[in-house]
Amino acid sequence: MVExxxxxxxxxxxGEMGPALAILLATLIISTFITEFTFTFGLNAxxxxxxxxxxxxxxxxxxxxxxxxxxxxxxGFLNRGNRQLVRVQEDRDTAVHPLKNWVIRPFQGIGxxxxxxxxxxxxxxxxxxxxxxxxxILPPGQFNMGRFLTATAIAIIVSLLLSFLWTLDxxxxxxxxxxxxxxxxxxxxxxxxxxxxxxxxGIVSLFDDYDRLPAVLxxxxxVVVLYPPVVxxxxxxxxxxxxxxxxxxxxxxxx
Length: 255
What we know:
By secondary structure, the protein is mainly α. Helix content is 67%, strand content 5%.
């Protein structure tokens, strides 16, 4: 992660991660000096907020270095029979764009994370036979190892899945059917809108017993917590592609 940050100047880093840093700074000010926000307040909020941001950014970004291995493992399922991965050079785009990296992809990550969280909660409810309430997902007042490990596992899964799909999309890799001549896109934005919808819907459904205003506030705080690290992950992903493009294409065995 540090290596990817060093590839550009401080000014370029701030420019590409501007919204994430702005929201992080606003969160620090509000939580430290004004009122409880993102589940912390006071002087402790400063280091807790920064630590949480750095931890989530690290957990989301580090799996990028597993991309070559993932591409090598999955290409066998995509390159077989009459199907072959090909590259459409005109669709290649590894640059950072505001709409893509500050809006679409961050909310893909947040929505997918919420979807996985609600699926896990449903499983726990069926396994334990007890009802799952909103208190299950709200951060406790003290450190909880089980919650920490669960959040870390969900972040890693989100990182691995999205980074692979984004790689195919950004490098212009498409699925070609030799028999029909059809070329299909893999990991298109529309294909990831459903996880966003169902992820947010699943989280909202847990707040049925809450008044509307507190429910909106809690959900907003959860999005504010997740948005900055996911933006960092999105930008770091594009930088990683720029430095490892040829290697990834080789691992994918793109025609």
